[in-house]
Amino acid sequence: MRDMADDDRSGALLRRAFNSEYGFLVVVLTLLVVGLSLAATNFLTPSNAVAILHQSSLVLIVAVGMTFLLITAEVDISVGANLAFASCVVMDVINQTNSVALGAMAGIAFGAGVGLINAFVTLVLKVNSLIGTIAMMMALQGGVYLYTREAVQNHHQIEIFPKIATGFLLGIPVPVVFAAVVALAGWFYLARTRGGRLVFASGANEAAVRLSGYSPARVKFGAFVMTGALVGLASVVLASLLNAGQPTAGTGLELTVIAAVLLGGTSLMGGRGTILGTVLAVLILKIIDNGIIMLRWNQDLQIIVPGLVLILALYMDQKKRGHAHG
Amino acid sequence: MPQSANPALSQSMLSRTVRKVAGQSEIALFASLVLIVIVFSSLSEYFLTTRNLTNVLGQASIILLIATGVAVALIGGEVDISVGSLVAAVALPLVEIMNATGSMSLGILGALVLGLIIGAINGYLSAYLRINSLIVTLGMLFLIRGGVYLWTNKRAQADTAYLESFFELGNGKAFGVMPIPAIIAGVIVLFVIVVMHKTRFGRRIYAAGGSAEVARMVGYDVRRIKFFCFLISSTLATIAGILLASRLGAAVHTSGQGYEFQAIAAVVLGGVSLAGGRGNILGAALGVLILAYLSNGLGMINAPTEWQLVITGIVIVAAVSLDSYKKSKE
Amino acid sequence: MHMGEADTATVRIADFHDLAPALTVTGLSKSFPGVKALDTVSLSVRPGEILALLGENGAGKSTLIKILAGIHSADSGQIEIDGVPQNFTSPADALDAGIKVVFQEIALIPEFSVAENMFLEDHLVGKANLVNWREIHRRAQEIFDRAGFALNPGAKVKDLSVSEQQLVEISRAMARDAKIVIMDEPTSSLTPAEVKHLFGVIDRLRDLGIAIVYVSHKLEEIFEIADTCVVLRDGRWVSTRPTSEHTPASLVKDMVGREITSLFPHTDRKVGREIVQVEGLCTKRLDGISFHVRAGEVVGFFGLMGAGRTEVAKAIVGFDPITKGRIRIDGEDLKPHSTVRSKALGIGLLSEDRKTEGLMLDGSVTRNMTLAALEQFTRNGLMDHRAETRQAQGFVDRFAIKLAKLGQPIRNLSGGNQQKVLLSRWLMFGLKAVVLDEPTRGIDVGAKAEIFALIDELAAQGLAVILLTSEMPELLGLSDRVYVLSEGRMTGEFTRETATQEEILDAAIR
C-alpha cells in the first residue's frame, strides 16, 4: 500500500514516479502519445486533446467511484444499467419541471438510491456484491422499460441543457471540469483524510478495523452510495450529450470502468489503489481509442485493445509483485 | 454416528443414488422449481402444456450449457466470464465453413477448434501464468467481442447453406415434442455430472478449487486441472454457440451479450460457491431451470418482459441472502 | 475409544534399542534467503521409538519436518529410510517412501468425506474407471475398525473436531503403510481426554513398529510419552539424550542456551477501582458469565478449546452480539453494543488471530500502528503524516521492534514484532482496559519474555488487563486472579495464591 507518510519527502518527484506503481502507466502513456504523434498528423493538436479529455470524462467520473469500491473489496456491476435509467429520469424530470437543476438532482438522487439499495443488499442481506449488483443490473435493465417505453426525448429545449455536454468553462469542456473536480476530490479524500484511510483499511482487513473501533460497513455503505451518485452525475452529462434519455445506453460501461480501475493499479483483493492510477488508465484507454480513429484503423479494434492492454498490464504487474494476484 | 455396515440392506438403490448426488440444497431447489410450476399453472392455462414446458427447455438449453461450464470453472476455483463473447465467436467458423463447404460436420469442427483455442489461452494465462482469471476472462471478453466485430464488420453472417440437419439441431423436436437442443444439453449436462461425481478428474477439480494447497501436497497437478476447467467451460460454451446459431439461422455478432452474468447468477442460485470447491452441477442446472421457468411463467401471465428482469433480480438476491443467512447459522 | 484389545496379532516392540534405524538424517543443511535454517543436523529414529523434537520457534524444527515431508529440498545432507538413501522431489515421494507428517494445519480436504480423504492420492475405481464409492467407504471403515477409531466414513471432514481430523490423518498414514509418522504440535487443540486418546493411538502405532517423531513444546507431554529427546537451537543440533536423563530444566537449558530464571516479572501493583464489570453474559455459546477486573490487575482466563474464552473476549468489546447480560466499562454501560462504543469507553481487544483480525498485511508498519488512533493525527479532517511517523517511531524505540524502516509492509516482520506493533496500536490510543487473546501464540521464548514484561508494565501503569491463554505457565506466572471457563460456563475463580495447576485443569474439564 502506498504509504506517503514514510516516503522521503524531499526526494525527486521523478524518481518516485518511476519507482512507484504509476511508473509503468506513465511510461505506457508517454509511449502512446509519442508514437501516435509521429504516426498521425492530427493527433497532437489542441482540439484532439480536448476531444480525448471529453470522451474520458464520463468513464472517469464513474471510475472514481468504482476505485473507492474496489479498494473496499466490493464491486458494482450495475453502473451501466444505472446510468441508462438515471439519464431517462433526468430528461423526464427536466421535461416535466422545466428545470435543469431539478432534473440533475433527480438523476443524482436516483443513482444514489440505486447505490443505497446495493449497499443494503451487500451489507444487510449479506449477499456477495458481485451477485447482488448483477441482480440489480438485471432489475434496472428491466425496470427502465417499465419507466419509459422508448427513449425520453428532449421536450423542454432549454438552451443551457446541451451546453452541459458541449459547453466550455474557462476554455475547458464542462464534462472535463466535472471529471477533474471529482477526481481531485476523490484523490484528496483518499490520500489525505481519515475517512480515506479507513477506506483502505476496510478493504485490507475488515475485522481489524472493527476491532479498532470503526465501522467498515459505514465505509462500504458510503462507497456504494457515492458510486451511485457519481453515476447519476454522469447520467446528466450523458443525457445532455445524447439529447435524450436512452434506456439502452451504458451497456458495457461496467466492464470498461472495472478494466480501467484494475489497469490503474487497484487490487481486486482490496486495500490498495490510487485515483491517479485510475486517471492514467482511463486516459490510456481513451487515447488508444482515439489513436485507432486517427490511424484510420478498423473501429472495432477499440473493443479488442482494452482487453489486451488489461491482461498485459496485470501480467507484468503480477510478475513484479512476485506472487499471484489474489 | 456409525455408518450402517451393509448399505444394501437399509435403502433402495435409487434413494441411495439420489442421496449421493443430491443434497439438502438440491432438494430445496427442486422444490422451488415445482412450486414455480404449480403457481404458474394455476395462474395461466397455457403454462402447464407440454408445448410450453418443452419450449422453455429448448430455449434454456443454451444458458444451461454455458452455466454448466461456468459452474465447472467456479468449482475449480476460477471464473470464466468470456463465455458470452465466445458464443458469438464460434458461430463464425461454423456458419462460414458450412456456407463454403456445405458440410455441417466441418463447420462444427471449426467451431470446436476455435473454442478450444480460446479455452487454452484462458487456461494458460490463468492456470500457468497465474494471472487472476477474472481479469483474464474479462480481457478476453473484450478481445473476442472486438474480434467478432472486426471479422464481421458488425454484420450478422447468415446461414446460406440451409442444411436440414443444421436446422434440426436447434429447432427440431424429437417425437414432435422434446426439442433437440434440450436433449443435447440434457445429455451433456448428465455427462458432466457423472464426470464431476464419479471420476478422479472431477473430484480433483473440487480439490483444486477448494483446497489448492492440500491438493498440491497430495500430488495433484493443480495447474493442469485448472487449465482443463477452462477447456471444459469454453467447449460447453461452444456447443451452446452452435445451438444458438442454429436457432438464429445466422452468426450474429451481438449474440451472447450478458450470458456470462446470467450464468453466474443461475449457478450461484444453484449453490455453487464463488469461492470454489463447493456446489454441484445438478444444483446449477436447477438454478438455470428455476430462472427459465420463472421468466416464462411471468410471460405467460402477461407480465411485461421488463418485470421478468426485475423479478429475476429480486429472486436471485432473496435466494442468495437466504443461503448466506443459513450459512451464518451453521 | 477401544484400544483394539480384540486384536491379538500385533507384536509389541518392547525394546527398540537393538533395531536398525527406520529413519536416519545425516548432516542436513538448508538455507533460505538471509537465514540458515538448518546447519548439519543429524538424528535417527528406530522402529517403535518415540523421539521428541524440541526447540524454540526458529530453531529449525519446521524446516526439518518440511524437508522430511518432501516439501522443501535440503541443500546438503542425506536422508535414509531403512538404510536406503532417499531423494524426495515432492510430497508424494515422501509418502511413497513411508514418511507421513501430520501437520498442525490439517492436510485434508474439508469439503470431502472422511472416506474420500483416505484415498486422495488414488481414488479407488471400479468399472469403466469410475470412482467406486462403495468400495472406498468399505475400505475406509475397515481401516478404522482395525485401528479402533470411531470415525464415520461418510461425514464431511469440515464437520469433524480437530482430534477426529487428526485421527483421519493418522489413518491415512496407516493405510499407506507408513514407517515413520511425524506429528507437529498435535495436542495444541485437544482436550485432556482427547490427548489421552491420542497417546493411546501413538502407543498403538509404536506397537505396530512405526517410528514416531513428536514435535511439541509442552514438556509435560514429552516426559509422559517420549523415549528420546533431540534438541535443536538456531538451526543446529544441540543434544540427543534419552528422556529419562533429562529434567524440565535441562531441556529448557538445551533449548534456550541459558538458564531461564524468571520469565514472568511481577511488580507489586496497586489495584484500583473496578474497570470491567460483567454480569450474566449470555451469547449463543456462553451461559451466564460474570466477572470483574480492576485497574492494575492482570486477570487470566483459562479454558480448553471451545470453552468460550474468545467468545467472552469478543462479546465484552462489542465485536460479537450478546443475547443477555450487562457489561460496564468504568461504570458506563456498553450500549449500543458495538466496538465503536467499547473503544469510546476505553476497552480494546488484541485478537488471537493476527492475520485475519489484526494485521493489514500489505500495509506499512506505521499505518498498522496508528489504525486505532487516527483521531489523534487528524486536524480539520486531514491526516498529519509526520505526526504519525513520529509517534510510531516512539513506540518502535520503546518496545525495541525490529524492522528495516517504518514504511515497510508489516508482513515481513516476525510474529513477535508484529504482536508488538498490534499492542502499540492500542497503547497509542490509550485504553483503560485491554483484552489480550493468546498474545504469545506462535512467538518464541525470547520474544515471549518481552511481551510478558510489557503486560506487567501495562498493569503497573493502571490498566485493567484481561489475559486469555491456554498456556498454564503463562497463566500462573502473570495473573493476579484466574477465572476458568468450561463449555460456556464459568467453573472456577482463583487468586494468585490459591491457584494450582491441578485445580485449574479440574475446573476446566467440569
Structural description of this entry:
The complex is a heterotrimer of chains A (326), B (330) and C (510). Chain A is mainly α and 326 residues long. Chain A has 14 helices and four strands. In chain A, the strands form two sheets. A two-stranded antiparallel ribbon of chain A has the order 1-4. In chain A, strands 2-3 form a two-stranded antiparallel sheet. In chain A, a hairpin with a 2-residue loop joins β2 and β3. Chain B has 330 residues and is an all-alpha fold. Chain B has helices at residues 7-10, 13-21, 24-43, 50-75, 83-101, 104-128, 133-152, 164-171, 180-198, 200-210, 212-218, 222-248, 259-269, 281-300, 305-329, and strands spanning 157-158, 173-174, 178-179, 250-251. In chain B, the strands form two sheets. Chain B has a two-stranded antiparallel sheet with strand order 1-4. In chain B, strands 2-3 form a two-stranded antiparallel ribbon. The two termini of chain B are 19 Å apart. Chain C has a six-stranded mixed β-sheet with strand order 6-7-8-3-9-10, sandwiched between helices. A six-stranded mixed β-sheet of chain C has the order 16-19-20-13-21-22, with helices on both faces. The longest helix of chain C has 16 residues, at 192-207. Chain C is globular and about 70 Å long.
Secondary structure elements and pairings:
The complex is a heterotrimer of chains A (326), B (330) and C (510).
Chain A: H1 13-19, H2 23-39, H3 46-71, H4 79-97, H5 100-124, H6 129-147, E1 152-153, H7 160-166, E2 168-169, E3 172-173, H8 174-192, H9 194-204, H10 206-211, H11 216-242, E4 244-245, H12 253-263, H13 275-294, H14 301-321
Antiparallel strand pairs in A: 1-4, 2-3
Chain B: H1 7-10, H2 13-21, H3 24-43, H4 50-75, H5 83-101, H6 104-128, H7 133-152, E1 157-158, H8 164-171, E2 173-174, E3 178-179, H9 180-198, H10 200-210, H11 212-218, H12 222-248, E4 250-251, H13 259-269, H14 281-300, H15 305-329
Antiparallel strand pairs in B: 1-4, 2-3
Helix pairs in contact in B: 3-14, 4-9, 4-12, 4-13, 4-14, 5-6, 5-7, 5-12, 6-7, 6-12, 8-12, 9-10, 10-11, 10-12, 13-14, 14-15
Chain C: E1 23-32, E2 35-45, E3 50-54, H1 61-68, E4 76-81, E5 84-86, H2 91-97, E6 99-102, H3 114-118, H4 133-147, H5 162-175, E7 180-184, H6 192-207, E8 211-215, H7 219-225, E9 228-233, E10 236-242, H8 248-256, E11 274-282, E12 289-294, E13 298-302, H9 309-316, E14 324-329, E15 332-333, H10 339-345, E16 347-350, H11 354-357, H12 365-369, E17 378-379, E18 382-383, H13 385-399, H14 415-429, E19 433-437, H15 445-460, E20 464-469, H16 472-478, E21 481-486, E22 489-495, H17 501-508
Parallel strand pairs in C: 3-8, 3-9, 6-7, 7-8, 13-20, 13-21, 16-19, 19-20
Antiparallel strand pairs in C: 1-2, 1-4, 4-5, 9-10, 11-12, 11-14, 14-15, 17-18, 21-22
Helix pairs in contact in C: 13-14
